[in-house]
Amino acid sequence: MAKTSNTNPENRQPAKKTVRQLPMNWFKFLIYCQLILTALSELSNAYLYLTGRVYAQEPGGAAAFYAQFPSFRIINMMFGAAGIVVAAFAVYTRFQLAGFKKGAPSLLLKFNLTSVGVTMIYHILYAFISATYGRMLTGREIMSYIALFGIGMAYYFVNKSYFGKREFMFNR
User: I want to staple 112 with a disulfide (CB 3.0 to 4.6 A). Which of 53, 121, 156, 167 is the partner?
Assistant: First the structure.
């Protein structure tokens, strides 16, 4: 009986490709927790801004506040509507990521920028309208807006790095 040799080209097995396993904990956190909570939070904020309940603690409530500062009603309505859009965007992004759809990571990055952008536009409008009524923002308010922007951008860059290494997984 003849011995078979593994050096014979006919008997060689094709080399198996090894796919590096990347941890997916951040991905799971995003699709099972963060994006869902973001959508719920945006809907809650939208309700507060659209109904004026954001000023419930003001003396006389929202009606008194809007009587004194009518311009805030307009930006609050715009911000409330934007909150509904951002909530829908969060849910859509979540399902695109969960389905490993092509382009889902870039969609998440667009969501991050949209969320930060909407918030910053609101705060800038708030500052300008406050100034027209003679109320200047305090240093604490300004610093909180800068910190909010910084955190949002850091979150964007974390997601960009994380999903940049995993883009190949999203191909459906």
Answer: 156
